[in-house]
């Protein structure tokens, strides 16, 4: 079994080395790490090239945003299982991919996901939010739930069968995609109750109030697109569902 890990980057010179080394340090070694850079104007590509021996594919060119770049990564992937690790993020420990791979030994399992912690940009040991997930059941997406996308691994044939990220969604395409896979197409997914990823605060969806509002509107549109009976109250519930993440901490 081979894993394809896709890292999308743009002007990520300060953090991209941490991400690359995080993948390289995994105890599961049958991995191709793919870097998709959006034509960075800082030292990102220079730093990436310094790690070329650890990388399978490096693409640097303009794109239409983060989800277009992720789609390029999916197209370039050759592994059996695809995962995403953003250029600001690292795996929580060196056994994450081994744990995920053990899940896919069961041929019936098509995807898995786990927990995530948001950490301080400069101190990866300082937890700001704890995104504890749960086993999937029908109706969760209409309540504003979704799996933490950087912890989400799916077999490559799932993307070939059901499609990639929908570029009509600029902030919450990961919400639409995971809803399409889990809720609409009912793929067999397993929740692993472990922390898989440390995500630095300040990402696209949580760095400005305007993006939070736009993201919730996109998630509402995604539910409507797939025929789920949500009302504007959905957006309020989605915001409120995140509040416990600031107070609950891992045991």
Account of the 3D structure:
- The chain is α/β, with parallel strands linked by helices.
- The protein has a single domain (3-246), classed as Spore Coat Polysaccharide Biosynthesis Protein SpsA, Chain A (Alpha-Beta Complex).
- The protein contains eight helices and nine strands.
- It has helices at residues 16-24, 44-50, 66-76, 96-103, 156-162, 173-184, 209-225, 233-242; strands at 3-9, 31-37, 57-60, 81-84, 89-91, 111-119, 127-131, 153-155, 189-200.
- Strand 2, helix 2 (44-50) and strand 3 (57-60) form a beta-alpha-beta unit.
- Helix 6 runs parallel beside helix 7 (209-225) and helix 7 crosses helix 8 (233-242).
- It is globular and about 50 Å long.
- The two termini are 32 Å apart.
Layout: helices, strands, pairs:
Elements: E1 3-9, H1 16-24, E2 31-37, H2 44-50, E3 57-60, H3 66-76, E4 81-84, E5 89-91, H4 96-103, E6 111-119, E7 127-131, E8 153-155, H5 156-162, H6 173-184, E9 189-200, H7 209-225, H8 233-242
Parallel strand pairs: 1-2, 1-4, 2-3, 6-9
Antiparallel strand pairs: 4-8, 5-9, 6-7, 6-8
The whole-angstrom Rg is: 17 Å
Reported CATH architecture: Alpha-Beta Complex
Structural class: alpha/beta
The CATH topology is: Spore Coat Polysaccharide Biosynthesis Protein SpsA, Chain A
| Approximate shape | globular
CATH class, anyone?
Alpha Beta
């Amino acid at each position: 079994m081979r894993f394809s890990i896709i890292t999308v980057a743009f002007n990520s010179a300060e953090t991209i080395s941490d991400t690359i080394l995080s993948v390289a340090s995994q105890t599961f070694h049958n991995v191709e790490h793919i870097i998709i850079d959006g034509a960075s104007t800082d030292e990102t590509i220079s730093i990436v090239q310094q790690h070329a021996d650890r990388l399978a594919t490096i693409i640097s060119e303009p794109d239409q945003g983060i989800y277009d770049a992720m789609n390029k990564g999916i197209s370039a992937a050759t592994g059996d299982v695809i995962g995403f690790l953003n250029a600001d993020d690292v795996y929580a420990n060196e056994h994450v991919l081994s744990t995920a791979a053990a899940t896919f030994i069961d041929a019936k399992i098509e995807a898995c996901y786990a927990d995530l912690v948001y950490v301080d940009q400069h101190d990866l040991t300082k937890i700001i939010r704890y995104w504890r997930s749960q086993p999937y059941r029908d109706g969760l997406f209409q309540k504003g739930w979704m799996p933490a996308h950087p912890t989400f691994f799916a077999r490559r044939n799932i993307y070939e069968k059901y499609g990639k990220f929908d570029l009509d969604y600029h902030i919450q395409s990961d919400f639409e995609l995971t809803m399409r896979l889990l809720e609409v197409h009912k793929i067999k997914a397993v929740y692993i109750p472990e922390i898989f990823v440390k995500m630095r605060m300040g990402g696209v969806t949580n760095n400005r109030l305007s993006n939070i509002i736009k993201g919730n509107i996109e998630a509402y549109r995604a539910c409507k697109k797939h025929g789920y009976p949500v009302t504007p109250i959905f957006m309020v519930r989605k915001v409120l569902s995140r509040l416990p993440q600031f107070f609950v901490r891992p045991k």
